[in-house]
Amino acid sequence: MLKQTEGSKAVAEAISLCRPEVICAYPISPQTHIVEALGEMVKAGRLTPCEFINVESEFAAMSVAIGASAAGARAYTATASQGLLFMAEAVYNASGLGLPIVMTVANRAIGAPINIWNDHSDSLSQRDSGWMQLFAETNQEAVDLHIQAFRLAEELSMPIMVCMDGFILTHAFERVDIPSQQQVDAYLPPFEPRQVLDPAEPVSIGAMVGPEAFMEVRYLAHAKQMQAIERIPQLAAEFKQAFGRDSGGLIRTYCTEDAETIIIAMGSVLGTIKDTVDEMRLEGHKIGVLGIISYRPFPLAQVRAALINSKRFLVLEKSLAVGMGGIVATDVRMAVTGTGLKGFTAIAGLGGRPITKASLHKLFREAEGEALPPVTFLDLDWEAVNKQLERERQTRRSGPVAENILHDKGIVSAKFG
Amino acid sequence: MGFQPVKFYQTGTFTVGNRLLAPMDRSVQAGQTRSNSINSGHRACQGCGEALGARYAIDAAMAESNNQLIAVNATGCLEVFSTPYPESSWQVPWIHSLFGNAPAVATGVAAAMKVKGKTDVRVVAQGGDGSTTDIGFGCLSGMFERNDDVLYICYDNEAYMNTGVQRSSATPPAARTATTMPVGPEPGNVFGQGKNLPEIAMAHGIPYVATATVADLRDLEYKVRKAMKMHGARYIHLFVPCPLGWGTASSDTILMARLAKESGMFPVFEAEHGEVTGVLKIRRQVPVEEYMKPQKRFAHLFGTHARPDMVARIQAIADRNIRKYGLLEDEGN
Description:
The structure holds 2 protein chains of 2 kinds.
Chain A: E1 2-6, H1 7-17, E2 22-25, H2 32-43, E3 51-54, H3 58-70, E4 75-79, H4 81-86, H5 88-96, E5 102-107, H6 121-125, E6 132-135, H7 139-156, E7 160-165, E8 173-177, H8 181-187, E9 204-205, H9 214-243, E10 251-254, E11 261-265, H10 269-282, E12 287-292, E13 294-296, H11 300-307, E14 312-317, H12 328-335, E15 342-347, H13 357-368, E16 375-377, H14 382-394, H15 401-409
Chain B: H1 49-64, E1 69-73, H2 77-82, E2 94-96, H3 102-115, E3 122-128, H4 129-135, H5 137-145, E4 151-156, H6 197-203, E5 208-213, H7 217-229, E6 234-239, H8 243-246, H9 253-263, E7 269-272, E8 275-279, H10 288-292, H11 308-325
Parallel strand pairs in B: 1-2, 1-3, 3-4, 4-6, 5-6
Antiparallel strand pairs in B: 5-7, 7-8
Helix pairs in contact in B: 1-7, 3-5
């Protein structure tokens, strides 16, 4: 059913259609509207049977989900940013135990400085946790990816994060097609656990494992994600057949057939990028777009195939590997090893910095001309940065960095008098 | 009405012996149908109080739940000695997740049972004093506050034994641990720190809180069975001496637990909805010295550089416990 609705509400409805049995909720912006909506559904009896548990931290949220999943219940939670870091130990534990929990990550920057706005630092920090990570471009895709995620997670008995840009998607009102319960029931069978805590058939889960078996367990987690590389496109195709929409898959290309320059990105910024590319195409630029939906598993072969006929690529990412450069860019470069393709990285939109078409036009043209340094920081205020660096050269007690920059910019004053 | 110890007329003792009792009065451990939830062959140290306590507690919980029990375990000695893969001792469905999240995992298991309508399946979570009073305290308080249907058992041996005897917030003052060495003017753990978890549990107003020691195993079984008859969050704080960490003879584990109770160092009581409903009285009061002297962790308080001043401060703690809980026959209730 078509609805004009907030992204978070749409996702909550999608989750409800997936018949979760245990939902753990802890508030953190910009994820909170999702669990608020689910809490109301459970309280009103519209989502039943379901246990909605208000926990005391994200660490507890993931831990409750672990217990519920190990006991055979379909478990869901949502988080973002600091919350994801706070639960990190349990995040690794869930995947290590092979529990098919689905979690929404409303992508948000990580502090300090504390910042509630969107970038991808949070879920990318859990890159190696063993969780799959699927990035939604639109709210429609966020809805659809959650439905596919439960199916994939339970098939492989591995957890999945569905990542959607905080505020940009979670708080945006737009048209979303919410499927019917019958459609979702037909696509997503009831959870049949591979392992379950059951007094009739006692098992020990989470026992101590030494060097004799640990590597095999870790390898099998990798093998599961390699299986997902096969299953994700199949599940997307099945989804299209059942729901009539293209949603999900490993990657999505746009105008890449004859493109000499390809822009690579994840999440909602793909919309702005496509608009920019449309305008450049009208001017005759041979430029295209590669959207990565499945960040983990990372589709190396598919990315390589999408880029192989181009001349150069630019990875535009909302994340930063401090001391190195790009995070997504590193994976893309791995995919194109030996092709001789020229690659650039642009770090953009950190902490919610707007990524404008004007800036993208300039950036993409520079990429086409191969006039970019290996790593570009889009719209970085060099004056502010240099002023702070100079201050640190001049004064030992130069003070808190973020407060200095805000003070220099005159946005707020951190000092009195 | 608290636990009524059975006195055997032949001996006048309070032992666990059962031969002289009617079958219905016998302990779970003495029963032919005991579940052996933690099977033999595990790797606990000789004289381990925790292994003994867990065996009695979980078997009692199994008996009371008609063997419909799921156990959640925090990281720690109990988890490590019972499960090196693939030699699990557990005859019950059992899960270990992390050091600090056992109460929350148990909440999740209980929620799953509820949503699936398996109301006969009960959930026990367990951990040592490190996971309970320190790293898992947030999750424990959350589980209490929500009154989730979980019995949590803390096996308190008063330090982080699994990692090599470091101080926890359950370590008593003056005790030697690897992080509170017996050096300097105030040797051992400092005075005036630490948490009283049973009282904190009571402050949550949960249906049932009890303390017990491995010196009174009938009392422990009674308390576990009583807790399992109730629903909501329940807490049992079980005192389990650690020969390795305390520097005591492995044959003295029960003695140490008894002296902790008889000296007033460890008050044994039960409480419902935040109110104390019963205490196990001290039968033969002993000075704290009698409890402390056999323990190497207190050795620096005695001998050539004796610290009677510090022993006196510990005696004052025991005396306060005795007053507060009315632990002597002629005091209070």
